[in-house]
Amino acid sequence: MAAINIAHSLEFERPLLLLEKKIDELKTLSASGAVDMTAEIGRLEKKARRLQEEIFSDLSRWQIVQLSRHNARPYFSDYIAHTFTDFCELAGDRLFGEDPSIVGGFARLDGEPVLVMGHQKGRSTKENMLRNFGMPRPEGYRKARRLMELAARFNRPIFTFVDTPGAYPGIGAEERGQAEAIAMNLEVMAGLPVPIISTVIGEGGSGGALAIGVGNRVLMLEFSIYSVISPEGCASILFRDASRADKAAEALKLTARDLLKLNIVDEVIPEPRGGAHRDPTTTADSVGATLRKHLGELKKLNPRQLVADRYAKFRALGAFLGK
């Protein structure tokens, strides 16, 4: 289980981390032979398991939003390293430049050539500046489109990983056609004759997420979110107060469980108790197994059926009330 920096932890998980830190200290003391703390350690471990169950069995939507943004949460690059082999990154949109906030290239899944791509955030301030905090500019989306069209030409399945607050709203991005770049991706992805599986691994923010999210199968990790707007943005518009983001999150119904009930996503991938950041290896194993399952199902469809399947999926989204 990954060690989490208490200083960077979320408020609601801090009591558990403090208790686990105390357990580790007692284990160190006991191992030194100075005193036998076995009984006390056992008692505290039982208490930690109960506390973990209490905290994570009834999270609010706002707490899930916070988990989806956890700075120790596995990023796209972590899934590449664990699930895929022979990854060869391809850069540039052949029109303007390179955008490091979207990473993509060809790789192998169990020996089969595939295209894998996704939003990439940074851990440090320096890397976040490089990755623009996972918010792509138009050249990022045009690079994504170029790679997906290349994958279709060579009949390679496409795996996309969504983890972005949204498309970058800066002046330069707007000048270079941010809306057009996103719209073109939606159009192109709708018609690609290869299997497309999209997985939301953290934040799924509005069109910035959907631009690489038009898949035959849309999957979400248990503590990820997917919404047309961030809770803070929604609260700023509706309540004129971004600090009411927790109330907006409840109204948006943006969690994986919510979206599964609404038939917007096809499957929720369970996370280890405490979140993906607590056990990245187990999380990646679960994601890999789910990707393999859905790819096996989609490979039974011919190119025309794949396009029709994707079209039918997105046409069916939404709930309408008649008179």
Short description:
The chain is built from 14 helices and eight strands. By secondary structure, it is of the alpha/beta class. The chain has two domains: 10-58; 65-315, 2-enoyl-CoA Hydratase, Chain A, domain 1, CATH 3.90.226.
Give a description of the structure.
The protein is of the alpha/beta class and 323 residues long. It folds into 2 domains: 10-58; 65-315, Alpha-Beta Complex (2-enoyl-CoA Hydratase, Chain A, domain 1). It is 48% helix and 15% strand. Strand 2 and strand 3 (112-119) form a beta hairpin. Helix 4 (76-83) crosses helix 13, helix 6 (138-153) runs parallel beside helix 8 and helix 10 crosses helix 11 (245-252). The radius of gyration is 21 Å and the shape is globular.
For the largest beta-sheet, the strand count, sense and barrel status come to: 8 strands, mixed
Quaternary organization: single chain
CATH top level of the largest domain is: Alpha Beta
Mean pLDDT: 92
- Count of distinct strands: 8
- SS class: alpha/beta
- The low-confidence parts are none
Q: What is the string of SSEs from the N terminus onward?
A: HHHHEEEHHEHHEHEEHHHEHH
CATH topology of the largest domain: 2-enoyl-CoA Hydratase, Chain A, domain 1
Number of domains: 2
Question: Percentage of helical residues?
Answer: 40-55%
Strand content: 15-25%
SS summary, helix count: 14
Note the overall shape.
globular
Query: N-to-C terminal Cα separation, in Å?
Result: 54 Å
| CATH superfamily label of the largest domain | 2-enoyl-CoA Hydratase, Chain A, domain 1
The radius of gyration over CA amounts to 21 Å
**CATH architecture assignment name of the largest domain:** Alpha-Beta Complex
